[in-house]
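ok posting inputs for the zinc ion job
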Amino acid sequence: MNEITLKTSKRVELVDITAKVKEAVRKSGLEQGLCYIYVPHTTGAVTINESADPDVALDIADQLNELAPPGKSYKHREGNADSHIKSSVIGNTAEVFVEDGRLKLGTWQGIFFCEFDGPRTRKFWLKVGEL
Ligand code: ZN
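and the output
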């Protein structure tokens, strides 16, 4: 399994990790199979969406802030309940097929680490294998 770290720069942002994932898949030498990504954080997540237009990631972050606004009176005393909610809405896993040694993403798709309580140093776990 690979552990890949990244630094985030805002409280809420989607960071394109496609290049990091592609590099890990290339290094693995796997020709056919599955790439599995897991985010081991309660205020982070991973999603696949459009990377061609960076405004899409900004819109997703903005709308998640509308859904779970920071500073609202939540029960969780740590003060980051909105971050936990955003993490659960998006989810902690993503899977992409590997075909001919390459990630099989759609034309406009990219993989994003979702930061919901940054900025921080974060990590995700990645494993590839045959199906
Ligand atoms: Zn918390």
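notes: The domain at 2-129 is CATH 2.60.120.460 (Jelly Rolls). The radius of gyration is 15 Å.
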